[in-house]
């Protein structure tokens, strides 16, 4: 559970990795979420980074999600506080 993972990170985290990969090959919920709510996904990542005092944030996403990748990159704009890794 996320709450348990967060408790372990309260001592400080160097790198926060946001797993944006689908857990099953035919599920598209995360893909659709990132397409429709990319700005909110990024803001949530920033909030977690702030809570955990993370030095860097990596968002890992599968290369077979081009629309989600494009939406995240567009929402990120010129900001460089988060890094999208395909």
Automatic annotation (TrEMBL):
It comes from the Bacteria. Residues 1-81 form the NADH-ubiquinone oxidoreductase 51kDa subunit FMN-binding domain. Keywords: 4Fe-4S, Iron, Iron-sulfur, Metal-binding. Gene3D superfamilies: NADH-ubiquinone oxidoreductase 51kDa subunit. It holds the Pfam family Complex1_51K. This is Electron transport complex subunit RsxC. One of its GO terms (cellular component) is membrane. GO terms for molecular function: 4 iron, 4 sulfur cluster binding; electron transfer activity; metal ion binding.
